[in-house]
Design goal:
With 481 residues, this protein is α+β, with helices and mostly antiparallel strands. The chain has 3 domains: 221 residues, Rossmann fold, CATH 3.40.50.620; 89 residues, 2-Layer Sandwich (Uridine Diphospho-n-acetylenolpyruvylglucosamine Reductase, domain 3), CATH 3.30.465; 121 residues, Phenylalanyl-trna Synthetase, Chain B, domain 3 (Phenylalanyl-tRNA Synthetase, Chain B, domain 3), CATH 3.50.40. Helix content is 40%, strand content 22%. A 6-stranded mixed β-sheet has the order 3-2-1-4-6-5, sandwiched between helices. A hairpin with a 2-residue loop joins strand 19 and strand 20. Helix 6 crosses helix 9 and helix 12 crosses helix 13. The longest helix is centred in the middle third of the chain and has 30 residues. The chain starts with 7 loop residues before the first helix and ends in a 10-residue tail after the last strand. The C terminus is likely disordered.
Length: 481
């Protein structure tokens, strides 16, 4: 059916039926005073009893156009009063917000406006807010995303229903006029003698959206008069394909990824085996698990991560939101502090070990016992049995140092400790945390990994030093050397 033959009321009614938003309740309506939002309010007013909705008007004065902004607020207040609809009219210093947060004027206005709408909706008990976006807004948004390189997700354009999150505020946005054109909303206002306000800032060519509206779109229509319809068809196709990939991503998530603490861990082998399209969606889903707002995550960031997938361990990509993407030997990490996943607590300073005895230091408890060779026993990688006559009793625990060398158990020659860690595929973020037990001039044990070959217990060993390292959060009882 050709929806252009339907009246605005019929199209709005169909919107609520198609989206399943027919449950009665309060609905906040964002009204700027322009033709689109005034048309929206008037159409919803006519449907309020049929749909069982209780309307509430919201208007924010951005204080950007002086007396014109004040006149817009008065107009909206008067319109709401004539219709008998309660209204919340407030003002905000968008210019100051823009300066404080270093945003474009358009971004600042959007954040301030939607925060106001979210707070108002919460205060009045409304679950949704209706905005007056039309098909023209959608076409401009698609082109705006295309120019900025937003990827397939940007090609989807505006959605009938979407969710907005920012700084703890959440908002469900509905767009009942999305299938109407700007010309139709203007005609509706003339028919009903509503006399909406004209925002002269929409005529300025400074904002990119306005340049797209007044320059790019007329040029494109000179090549294809139906370019708007073509873009909307593209958006519908993109939306269908994105819905498919999002479902596939959800079904694959547990196989490929997990969230541990504030870090996403991705299985390297499984992620590399997936098609590029699914890799992109999984990486974006990983961002969504960590960030409340993805507005700063663009297609280029996803591609930067993908380009690092086949790079050697240790490669990292710095990303928005304070996040880092790190390549390890058999996995990838995305988080603000992936090193926090290390089983080793942070360690700084050097601590003399009590031998025999118990040494407590930040994050660690080291127990040392001396026994004969027949009773010596190693239990796990955090326990070591050493030839006491070779190690001596002047041992200390410390982080690794540049130039540290030792002869790993089973090897015939010494090697640098850092090279041993690389060969053992120790994640780069863990290496500074791995404790080293050292004697004067020796690295005796890389805790959790390997002892020095020359310190091992042999048939000639008479006394055995058994060290056991336990990770804990005890108060430090030993001072650094």
């Amino acid at each position: 059916m050709d929806t252009s033959l339907l009246s605005p009321q019929e199209r709005a009614r169909n919107f609520f039926l198609e989206t399943g938003l027919t449950s009665p309740g309060k609905l906040l309506v964002a009204v700027s005073g322009g033709a689109d939002s005034v048309c929206l309010l008037h159409v919803l007013y006519g449907l309020r009893e049929e749909l069982g909705i209780d309307l509430h008007v919201a208007h924010l004065n951005h204080r950007l156009r002086g007396v014109d902004s004040d006149a817009d607020a008065r107009y909206v207040a008067g319109l709401a009063r004539r219709l008998g609809i309660p209204a919340t009219i407030e003002s905000a210093d968008v210019a100051a917000y823009r300066k404080q947060h270093r945003l474009s004027l358009e971004e600042a206005a959007r954040e301030v406006r939607y925060s106001f709408l979210a707070e108002t909706a919460k205060r009045i008990g409304a679950e949704r807010v209706a905005v007056g976006h039309t098909s023209d807004d959608n076409i401009e948004t698609i082109l705006l995303h295309l120019v900025r390189g937003s990827g397939t997700r940007g090609l989807r354009g505006l959605q009938p229903l979407s969710r907005w999150r920012h700084s703890g505020n959440r908002l469900t946005i509905i767009r009942p006029l999305l299938k109407m054109s700007r010309a139709e909303t203007a005609a509706y206002c003339r028919q009903h003698r509503l006399k909406p306000r004209l925002d002269t800032s929409n005529l300025s060519l400074s904002p990119l959206r306005n340049r797209i509206r007044h320059k790019l779109l007329p040029l494109l229509r000179s090549y294809n008069p139906q370019v708007g319809a073509a873009l909307l068809r593209t958006a519908n196709i993109a939306a269908d394909e994105l819905a498919f990939f999002e479902a596939e991503t959800a079904s694959l998530w547990k196989e490929v990824a997990e969230k541990r603490k504030n870090t996403i861990i991705l299985n390297k082998e499984k992620l590399l085996a997936l098609p590029a399209a699914l890799q992109r969606h999984l990486l974006r889903a990983a961002f969504a698990k960590l960030l409340a707002d993805l507005k700063d995550i663009e297609a280029q960031h996803i591609e930067e991560m993908r380009s690092a997938l086949d790079k050697p361990a240790g490669k990292f990509v710095t990303l928005p939101g304070g996040l880092v993407f790190i390549v390890e030997y058999d996995r990838y990490l995305l988080g603000a502090d992936p090193a926090a996943l290390s089983p080793f607590p942070p360690l700084s300073g050097e601590y003399a070990l009590k031998i025999p005895g118990t040494t407590r230091l930040p994050g660690w408890r080291i127990e040392a016992t001396i026994t004969d060779a027949n009773q010596a026993m190693e239990t796990d990688s955090f326990a070591a049995c050493l030839d006491f006559d070779r190690t001596g009793d002047e041992l200390s625990l410390r982080p690794r140092r540049p130039g540290d060398r030792f002869q790993p158990l089973g090897m015939g020659q010494p090697k640098k400790l850092n090279q041993f860690m690389i060969d053992a595929k120790v994640p780069q973020g863990w290496r500074p945390r791995i404790p080293v037990v050292s004697a004067p001039g020796w690295v005796v044990w890389a805790v959790g990994y390997r002892i020095d070959e020359r310190m091992k217990v042999t048939e000639a060993t008479r006394r055995v030093l058994c060290l056991k390292a336990e990770r804990q959060s005890d108060t430090v009882l030993t001072s650094p050397v």
